[in-house]
UniProtKB/TrEMBL annotation:
Protein name: von Willebrand factor D and EGF domain-containing protein-like
Transmembrane annotation, as ranges: 425-447
Signal peptide: none
Organism (species): Drosophila lebanonensis (Fruit fly)
Superkingdom of the organism of origin: Eukaryota
Lineage: Eukaryota, Metazoa, Ecdysozoa, Arthropoda, Hexapoda
Amino acid sequence: MVNKDGRLVTEWRLEGDWQNKTVLQWGFRDICCEGYMGSIDNCQPQCDNCPANSYCAAPDRCECNSGYEYIGVRIDSVVCAASCQSCGRNTHCVEPERCLCDEGYVRSSAENSADCEPVCVQACPEFSHCGRPNTCVCNAGYTAHENGTCGPMCSSDCGPHGYCRAPGKCGCLFGYHYETPGSSQCVAKCDEKCERNANCVEPNRCECKAGYNLTEQASGGLSCEPICGTTCINARCSAPETCTCHKGYKRVNKYHCIPICHHCNGGDCVAPDNCTCWEGFLPKFETKKIKRKDVIIQTCHPDKNVLIPPWNCITRCLCLQKLEPEREGEPKTENTTHSKLQSVSNNTARCVDACDKGLKKSKDPACLNTKLCECNQLSWNLICHGKSKSPRYTRFSCSVLAPSPDLSPKTRSLKKDTPVQWEDYARGVLLAMFITLVFIGSGIFFASRRHFPPVER
């Protein structure tokens, strides 16, 4: 049966009892069942120390009160906790359907909110919030700094001149900017544009690019000029280690340009269209069409009065070398057209062999055909040319002479540094002519005496 408190109790039972008296009597009474106590109208189950918020539902069996739920056993005792269906965050259920904020939390000010918010005694810095009681936590997208503040986080590096201005967004420091839209690197900004050979390396400060040097101009200004490790010849240093030829010049190598002369034959091109004739050559000026324009050009032609047979230059020559034309600014170098080497007095020279040298045809197919050459008696250079109407002249010089203590007039003519030998040769010729004339005169005299009779006196 159920008592007035709504608790279940067992029914009562009937028991008999007897007493040993003189007269035997029988009687009946109502008592509670085993494990229960109380009056016959209110038999209650007996339990040892049911915990709070529970009741003894049966002998030695406790159950949670209505609005409470069993959460386990703690120290050999059943634990019943209040049950709430709508408690918010940071709260706990103290009674059925009655929630209170946890320690250090207060009810949220948000409308219709069942949550409780933590309380921080000191105000949290910018970009942070009170995440736990008296503990500030940085907002999402921000990170804590050592000085206790919160700053934005960026997934990519903003560079040495940039900073993270917002979560996932970079910005440039003062004096720097993004050079192009969409760029992720900040570069220095100069209010006045740097010249083309300089870069803006710091705010409002230009610096010459690599390979350029700051140079003071004749006008007094400064500019970045390219650097060439070797001096440009007949050219200007237009870029680092790059020379650009002046007008009227052509490139020989990376740093050297030579002048251009049109039809400079028999002379040296010393400047654009400026030809200096070789010794023994005479200048001649002609007008020719060059790129549809009449241009006066200078050519050189050999002076026939100074040319003698080629054997005068090659008879005693052991090493004949080709002379290259001299040009403005060009270092003088020796060059040859033949690789035959001859060793004379422990010196090795690159020599050109003459085909008809010594009246014997050379076996070398690259020999020099001296039938197209003449000897210049002013310079003692061998002047050779081609078979065309406008032959190209080439000079050869004898660099090694064969030693000969007793020179005939013919071979002595090779010594350039002893012009008196030509005088001896001329004296010999005059003497021979004189003797010939004497013989001729004597013959005429005796012949006339034989054909004509003597005159009487």
